[in-house]
TrEMBL record:
Residues 395-406 have a biased composition (Pro residues). The chain crosses the membrane at residues 12-35, 47-66, 73-93, 99-123, 144-161, 167-187, 219-239, 251-272, 279-298, 304-326, 338-360, 366-385. Keywords: Cell membrane, Membrane, Transmembrane, Transmembrane helix. GO terms for molecular function: transmembrane transporter activity. Residues 395-423 are annotated as: Disordered. One of its GO terms (cellular component) is plasma membrane. Pfam families: MFS_1 (PF07690). It comes from Micromonospora echinaurantiaca. It is a multi-pass membrane protein. This is Na+/melibiose symporter. Gene3D superfamilies: MFS general substrate transporter like domains (1.20.1250.20). Its main location: membrane.
């Protein structure tokens, strides 16, 4: 990871993303806790996450729009718009205002797809192909590491002063991200900003995903796992409430423990890509979610900590494997549409599963649903592992250390030294 962090352009991008990821880490869970607090419903709390993911169905349109604009300025404007979208949260007062949280969550979900598509192209422009896994690993390490403090901080601030302060802090984070990335200088290729035909180019991302064997099988396997993985967004509230007998804010503790696993997974992810390739890394991430879900079928605090820790390890492996695969197997001018289409292919099933989970948690025993998640993700991981040979581990590339600046020669000192030596 030190190699990619030596690059000044990536370091600047990293600082900007750190601000926006901090905003995300304190905001997302707090919205669900806010709904749970206002309504007392596990299903409605889980539906908040559904509202965030549902806009991913618009990803092909979003990707087409992203590919029409230069990456850096688009990313800056999108962060500023995201900050503005959070302002309606200041109007939330009681149960009757829950719809405002859902609307903001949906708009935030649309913004998230947009920012992700633009970021994929921006990283592709800044980082050499052989360092993409490192770059994605660094970002995932930080994103998951923020779970160590973000959810607890968000839950604590919500309990102390309510959701309005969380909204204000998140707005500041997105504003800082816009300011820092705005200072980045990225040369834009004319091919990446040229006008694209409508609607012929709208489906170009999906066509590329369907035509590239590794991407097609990776998204098929991951999509199968996503059909049930989303159940956990609602089930975790039932697990805490019915299983552990604690209030909804304790979900923040579990997510923090998950962040420890995410930090470990992020640190390991680039090395895993070098050993088993992108599809193999994706397979490992999906498969690890299986035993984690099976463990959550039994309500035990310490077993639950171990389960969410393992789930945390799985997430960055999945994301780094998928994002690196997309960036390496996609032409630069198409990457916005491909990244957004990938979000739709994975996010669509995940949104359906979150919605289904919000309904099923009120009908079926949550332990049965966790067992179903565990078995299904183990099968999806096995399918992906079978196809890992489509992306063999990349050949190692030597990156020489940055040259040490030479000190200017002081000719007067040299002459004096020679006289003293008798020259």
């Amino acid at each position: 990871m030190r190699t990619v962090l030596r690059r000044p352009d990536f370091r600047l991008l990293f600082v900007g993303l750190l601000a926006s990821m901090a905003a995300e880490s304190i905001l997302l869970l707090a919205l669900a806790v806010w709904v749970k607090d206002l309504t007392g419903s596990d299903g409605l709390a889980g539906a908040t996450i559904f509202a965030v993911i549902a806009p991913m169905t618009l990803a092909p349109l979003v990707g087409w729009f992203v590919d029409r604009h230069p990456r850096r300025p688009f990313f800056v404007v999108a962060n500023l718009v995201t900050a503005a979208l959070l302002t309606p949260l200041f109007a939330v007062g009681d149960r009757t205002d829950v719809w405002i949280i859902y609307v903001v969550a949906a708009l935030y979900g649309l913004s998230y797809v947009t920012l992700s598509a633009a970021l994929s192209g921006l990283i592709r422009q800044l980082v050499p192909a052989d360092l993409l896994a490192e770059a994605n690993g660094v970002l995932q390490t930080v994103r998951q590491g923020l779970r160590l403090i973000g959810p607890l901080a968000g839950a604590g601030l919500y309990a102390a002063v309510g959701g309005w302060l969380l909204a204000a802090l998140a707005m500041v984070g997105f504003g800082v991200a816009a300011a820092v990335v705005g200072a980045l200088r990225v040369p834009e290729s004319p091919a990446e900003t040229a006008a694209l035909r409508w609607p012929a180019e709208l489906g170009a991302g999906l066509r590329h995903l369907a035509g590239e064997p590794a991407l097609r099988r990776a998204l098929f396997g991951y999509g199968l796992g996503s059909l049930v993985m989303g159940f956990s967004e609602s089930l975790i509230f039932a697990y805490v409430d019915r299983g552990l007998g604690r209030d909804a804010a304790f979900v923040g503790v579990l997510v923090t423990v998950q962040g420890i696993g995410g930090l470990l997974g992020g640190l390991l992810s680039a090395g895993v890509v070098r050993r088993v390739g992108e599809v193999g890394t994706l397979a490992a991430g999906v498969a690890l979610f299986g035993p984690a879900a099976l463990a959550l079928a039994y309500p035990s605090l310490w077993l639950g900590f171990a389960a969410v820790l393992l789930a945390g390890v799985s997430l960055p492996l999945t994301m780094v494997g998928l994002h690196t695969l997309i960036q390496r197997r996609t032409p630069a001018g198409l990457i916005g549409r491909v990244a957004a289409a990938a979000e739709a292919v994975v996010g669509g099933p995940q949104a359906l599963s979150i919605g289904a989970g919000a309904l099923l948690v009120g009908v079926l025993d949550y332990r049965l649903l966790f067992a179903l998640i565990g078995l299904a993700t183990l099968l999806a991981g096995s399918y992906l592992w079978h196809h890992r040979t489509l992306t063999p581990p990349p050949a190692p590339t030597h990156h020489p250390p940055l040259p040490t600046p030479r000190r200017p020669v002081d000719h007067e000192v040299v002459a004096t030294t020679r006289r003293r030596r008798g020259h």
